[in-house]
Amino acid sequence: MPIRVGLACVAAYLVAAVLAAAVGGRRVAPVLIYGAMTAVSAVGLGSALFALVTGDLKTQLALPLGLPLSGGSVRIDALSAFFLLVVNLGGVAASVYGLGYGRHERSPLRVLPYIPAYLAGMNLVLMADDAFTFLVAWEFMSLASWALVLADHRREENARAAYIYIVMASAGTLCLLLTFGLLAGPDGGYAFAAMRETVEPPLIAGLVFLLALAGAGSKAGLAPLHIWLPLAHPAAPSHVSALMSGVMTKVAIYGFIRIVFDLVNAPASWMSLIVVALGGITAVLGVLYALLQQDIKRLLAYSTVENVGIVFVGLGLALAFRAHDMSVPAALALTAALLHVLNHSFFKSLLFFGAGAVVHASGERDMERLGGLIHRMPHTAVVFLIGCAAISALPPLNGFVSEWMTFQAILVGPQLPHWGLKLIVPAVGALLALATAFAAACFVKLFGMIFLGRARTPAARTAHDADGFSLAAMYGLAALCFLSGIVPGILIDVLAPVAQTLVGARVPEQSGVAWLSVVPIAASRSSYNGLVIFSFLICSGVLTAMVIHRYATRATRRSAFWDCGYPDPSLATQYSGSSFVMPIRRVFGTALFDIRETVDMPPPGARRPARFSLKIFDPAWRFAYGPATRAVWTIAGKLNRLQFLTIRRYLTLVFAALIVLLIVVAAWR
Amino acid sequence: MAIIYELAAQGMQMILVLAVAPFILGVTRRFKARLLRRIGPPLLQPYRDIWKLMHKEAVMAHGASWLYRSTPYLLFASTWVAAALIPTYSTGLLFSWSADLIAIVALLATGRFALALAGMDVGTAFGGIGSSREMLIASLAEPAMLLVVLTVSLVAGTTQLSAIAEHMIHGSVGLRVSLGLVLFAFVFVAIAENARIPIDNPATHLELTMVHEAMVLEYSGRHLAMIEAAAALKLTLYFSLLVCLFFPFGIATGDKSIVAFAIGLGFYLSKITLLAVLLPIGETAVAKMRVFRYPIFLGGAFATAALAVFLLFVSQGF
Lengths: 669, 318
Prior knowledge:
The complex is a heterodimer. By secondary structure, chain A is mainly alpha-helical. Chain A has helices at 2-23, 29-54, 78-101, 114-127, 131-149, 156-184, 192-197, 202-220, 229-235, 238-263, 269-292, 296-323, 327-362, 373-376, 378-391, 398-412, 419-451, 458-461, 468-486, 488-503, 530-552, 577-580, 582-593, 619-639, 647-668, and strands spanning 59-63, 72-76, 556-559, 596-600, 611-615. Chain A is 70% helix and 4% strand. The two termini of chain A are 47 Å apart. Chain B is built from 11 helices and 1 strand; from the N terminus they run H-H-E-H-H-H-H-H-H-H-H-H. The mean pLDDT of chain B is 90. In chain B, 70% of the residues lie in helices and 1% in strands. Chain B has one domain (2-314). The interface between A and B is large, with 87 and 87 residues.
């Protein structure tokens, strides 16, 4: 049943895309298209949830399309049902948000047709049951999102972002193509069922793993393949940014899980070592980059890189435990990773929606030119604060639960027999703690700069709150952040079949635990109860406030701020975002990013203003992409000569190519 | 009946930490003054301060938002709840399972997050400098604290505080190199988190190096009372944590009678009072650090804790 509904959803999205292309210019188009998308993704969400809860799964369906010999087929199992849930939930939220936000779009024809197509692509990736369908859907998703990145194509930086994105996306797809080629083997078994059955030799399995890590990792934003992400995600309209950051990175993670956990049959310790280490490095690097940003949306995009790192730490741990036949800890680590996938899709969509509301209201993406919006945009401020607290892993919200579970999995690490893992796992634990602390600093800065303090520009002084639809989408996501923080046990139980199919075990049943606590291993080992913590916090806080107001005093007086006796009304005396992160930048960033600070102070008496400039070098660009780009340029320059040959030489070249190919074929046989 | 008794025991602990916290602060202040050859304030002065502040009118800047007004209560509540979940006189109280060691550390982070935001709310230079430095200290201290948690839970096999305390008493733990090292790291982290010398000076204003006081500079009246109470609670919390993790002897385990509770209470109070005396001795021996020397201090804590973890990985016997 769910598979037919899923296919119907894909078809409906495609129809909506065509319809949008036809009527996109009309006034009613945004309402019509976003309304249709809301309905379709709500149906998709319902069917995914139904499939996951009732276990009505494993239904395969052959498609009338596909490769001549193997054909195409689709299937939904627990893993794809869970990711369908994530995608369609993001779809519902983005569509509802779009009902309000999308009306202000200046050129709707550049946005409207691609969003349903994009959602169709992502849905189809998750349902694909053979390599051909998977890759076609994957490319569909990439191209649709590329078009969305180019929506505002007149800005030069967007064009550059789209160019880098398409290059990286093509490279990633190439890696996946080779992955599936290796998995299919010489007989060309491109159906996933055939790949599951073949047992690859260790060398092939290793190659498949590395290629899948590069292909899916580049889409997810794993360092050092993340460079396109902070350029491309912010360039799109905000609800599309939310889809790209909150949802598309999850589809990439799905691709990685599908290949490495499901299709490859020989997990080895060294694979998990690479994943865990890369995850930890990605988490810390991503959030350090995020800290240094001034652009709201780019900061959020870098923070996506961090969260992808956290998910990959969980996945790597799950691989490690599975490689050593420790299936219960593997289930714990996998559940933690998947829970973080879900949680991140909640709060990252929420934060991008909030950023969109702020950018629309003020016309500013630079947080140094905002401030004081808590007074002008009270509703957006509340939901944005919830999102910031959730992503900073603060109890009792949801980000904490998944990170806490990841830490619990790390604490099982010493039981691993492999020496490399034994040393890497606690180090990654420390990296994760560092990333969490940085994330808190980063989001204090973000919220503080946008919403607190005094308005730094007239644009910030005249901002207004978002419309009803946008606020409804944001409040809905904030409620989900909150609910999944205080009663995470329900979600953990929903994830049980996924872990069961992939690692052969599950986290203990949570629904029977008293007081709705979370007990990932055993009650004597660790437990957490968000509901109790939340009620305690509310009761003690509210009670204290009431007692003080009742029995002490509630007298309040407003006056000018004190600032230790030297109040300066100038707006420039406020702390700026770059000064806020200066200590952290100095301590952690100087060596890593080769930061150069130069102060140009005019001599006494000179009239020119003093200048401060800051240069940050990205090590990924400097050591990997810079040399690679230069090499491509050099080779292209050399090959350029081939354009100006005579006809005889061209014929010689063709003939030589033929001979070489014949020799290769002869040697192969 | 049993559930009422257990609820009462848990409630007792909640009231106990709240009641004792200003006294502990009073002891440190008094003893520090004596070490500096001053007479010092009476032991009960912190109670009087909080009482006085509570009854004063709160003066707020014109631009202060609801966040500014509610933060003191959130900070107080989160610190209080965290302090009340650490076993003091007995292990295994009714709600002891609702947060483990990691969750308690994270609850303190919630309070810090709110306070750092409140510091930026009015839009002053001092508030921003305080928030900025507080987040720097947090990002240095949290990894060290997590390695301490990792070590302790590796030794005890659990992150539940009650279970750790019971393991330290009944299990054959003995003297461990790793525990000694993390005790050292824990003390460093506790000093930084409580804004004590050499990281921060709780007794000053108008110093360019101050951190916590700069952040709460704009607060007055009942709001300031809440923040002061939360600071006192946090000091007590770290003392209780140190006692519970490393020196839990005397705590009531299993036996839930009034007598056992009373003995546990006696031990607990004398231990934390002793710590309140030891803290100023350390503080008077060193000078306040420059901001950019914090990484050396807290990096030392991190390195020590990391050494402990790696020793444990080499052999569980360390």
